Fold:
Amino acid sequence: MIAVLRSELHRTLTIPSSWLSMGLAVVMGMSFALFSVDFWSLFVALGVFGIAVVITSQHYQHRTAVLLFLGQPRRLRALAAQCVCAILLGLIVAVVSGVTTILSREFEQFTGTLAATPLLALFGVASATVIRRPVALFLAYGTWFVFAEGLAFRFKQPLPFTTFMSAAGGNTQGLLLFSGYTAAALGVAAWFIRRDLADQ
Structure:
């Protein structure tokens, strides 16, 4: 497990697009924190989710999943390593980009978003394991979380007005609802990771 995790971290940190994604998430989070701490939470959440999706789906897009599963035939261990890797990177992004939030003394929002970060990372990995194409995944979830849930909650202001944004803001009810989404996504991912790599 440690070897697979080390391999995942090494692979992720040697791909320029991973550094670009993390850097962009940090800069956007810090920049938008100057306007509103809610926007910081939103951009950190989107960044953590996006990074998790990108580092997981890269295996399927670049066909390195074959090597991963040959090196670790127990695919659930590989999935667990990807989850831990995404959580670690997500926490780093949240903490570094949260400097602006800490300086503005928004400690409650900072800790709430930090608590949601592992869930957002797990949800991203699980989703990319099931839907192996990141563009399709972002469009599907964007439609669901912004429009479907937004309409259900009648776009209540101020942010957050959906489960995703509510969890990102550290809202207890939002975290519980999003925990349910994450648990369901991980269950589906544990089953889907066994499918043939040719079935994409």
